[in-house]
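Mods, move this if it's the wrong board.
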Amino acid sequence: MAALLAGCTAAGANQSGGQAAAGGPSALPAVTGAAPAPSPTPTILPAPGQVAKKLAAVSRSGIGASGLVVLAPDGSVLASRSADKALAPASTMKLLTSLAALDTIGADHTFTTRVVRSGTRIVLIGGGDPLLTDKKSRSAARPASLQGLAAATVAALSAAGVKKVELGYDTSLFSGPAFSTAWKDKWHSWVARVSPLLIGSGRFNQWQADPSPARTAATAFAKRLKAAGITVSRVLPARADAGAAELASVQSAPLATIVGRTLTYSDNLAAEVIARHVALAAGNPASFTGAAAAITAWLTAHALWSDGMRVVDGSGLSLSARVTPTVLAKAVLTSLDTPALAGVAAGLPVAGRSGTLKDRFDDKRELVARGNVHAKTGTLVGVAALAGYLTTADGTRLVFAIIANKTRGQTTAYNWLDRSTAVLVRCGCR
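Not the wrong board. C-alpha cells:
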C-alpha cells in the first residue's frame, strides 16, 4: 500500500490526492485564501502554436492514455491534446463536486449537529458536518465540537433537573451504503465510512478507518456527559421523534470554508459528505447513487458535461469515474469568474507551499512554478491529474487541466504534470 499512497500529500494518506495524517486533521489550518479577481483578457495572448510546441517538448515517457488543455482568460483554447477524452480523474473530481455544492447549497450554508430530548431519552442527531471534532479545535474550519455540544446539553438537562438519560444517535439524514461498491474491497480497513455523524474525519489514525463512526461519536459524547455528572444508562441507534424538543446544537463552518479545506488537503470523506448534501438539495436520496445523479444533473445543466463522462462518487476514489480535461479546465475557469463559486479556486493547493502540492515541483526544471501554480491534484494507482491556474512570465493567467492514465509510476506521472505546468509558467510563447 505504500507504493499506492506515495506522494499524495505531505500529511500522508489516501489514494486520491491526500487525507490528513492521524492526529493531524484538527491541527490543520483553516483555508482562508481568496480567489484572485477575474483577469482581463490580455491585448496579446500567447500564440497557441508556441504553447503547444513548449508542451510537446516535455517528455511523456511512461505516460499511457492522457489528455490536456490550456485556456486563456476568456476561455479560448491555447493548446489541447485529447482534451475531450474522458479519463479517470482521481481527486480532481472534487472540483466538480465542490462547484455543484456551492451553487446548490450556498457558500454560507452551515450544517447543524443537534441534541433533542423525549422524556429520559436524548438523541444526538448527525447533521452532516464532515469536520465535527470531539475536543474543541482552534481551526476556523472546525468550529463545531462534541465538547461544546455536551456543555450546552448538560446545562439544559441540569436546568430541567434531569440527571440520568439514555442516549440515542440518529444517522437517518444519509441513506445507502457507507462504503461504495465501486471502491476496492481491500480499502475497507483505511477508507473512512460516509456518515452524517462522525468525528476525527471518521478515522482512528492515518491508516485505520472507523467501521462505526456514528457509534464512536455517540460514545465520545456520552463520555463527556458522564464527566459532567450526567448518568448515561446506554448508547444505542435511535430515530429522533418528530416532536422532540431541542436541547442544544452546534454549527459547522460555512460550506465555502469546508470546501476550501477539502480541496487543499484532498479530504475524501469530506467530499463524499458534501456530495450527499448536493443530493439532498436536489431532492435525491443522500446516497452514492443519489449524489452521483445530482452532480451529473448539475454539470449537465451548466454545460460542464461531455460524452463518455461518468460520475460515481464525490471524491474521485472510483477508478470507473470519467471526466475530460476540458470540463475540469472549464470548472476552474467558472470558479475564477463567478464570485459565488470562488471558494473552489480559493481552496486549490499551491505548488511547493500548501496541501497536496506542498512537496511537489521539487527539481530545477519545476522550481519556477513554486508559489505560482494553484491546482487540484489527483492520484490513484496508474492515474495522476492536475487542474488549476497559473500566471505566465508575461503576466497572463492561464487555466489548465492535465490527466494521465495507465502511467508507469507516480514519480513519472508527477514529473510530466509538474514540468508541463512549469513550462507554461516560463512561457511568453509569442
